[in-house]
Design brief:
With about 240 residues, the chain is mostly helical. It has one domain. The chain is globular. About 30% of the residues are buried.
Length: about 240
Amino acid sequence: MAGVSSKKNTKKIKDIEDIKDYMSRKFRKPKNLFVLAVTLTVPFLFLVVMSFYEWGFIGALDETIGLRLHGSQDTLLTRFFIGLTRMGDAWFVALFATFFSLYIWRVRKHARLSIWYFLTVSIGAGGVNQLVKVFFRRPRPTHVEHLIVHGGYSFPSGHAMGAAIAYGALLFLIIRASRTWVPTVVGSLILVPFILLMGISRVYLGLHYPSDIIGGYSLGLAVLSMSIGLYSASLKDKGYKKGQR
């Protein structure tokens, strides 16, 4: 019985390694990442089209979903979402990106990856988001009370986009550095719900429409995918070996 159990465990480990190897081969190729980036922009582009038609039925859904979520207010839930949303504020993301980049550079001794992370978060979560917001100039919701004060435009959500890029890139680095599935699984179980809850918090607090959140996730993940693709392409161009990446 012990021998059978050992063989089953060995097979499971081999299956997991095969899956990881397959995913690594697929998503290490710049071409595949660029295709993924284009695909991820589809929801964002759809919302862009709807914006030229005064948001159409999307606007009606925005208000309906927003009112229902905003109507489920609870004191503890409100405190939780306020605390959560602060971790997506520009100052917090900038501080996190700075210290984490320094950690990669000084502790992990990987200057190239440190620069990649800092530039990805700074340009993607900061520059790109603000440029798109200024272009569309969508006002924040007026049909619900804002539970915290926040200026600026609404589409796409900077918190949703910033979380997808900053914390999505963090998850990418965890997966990249993992030699077993444990860090990958733990990181995913923490960061994926965190990113999703960040978007929900913005609607709950009355600061965004649901379509702002979807647009932020779509554009943010597309930018992240494009950035990973460019990083992978630069490694191939420079002739880096696997251990140096």
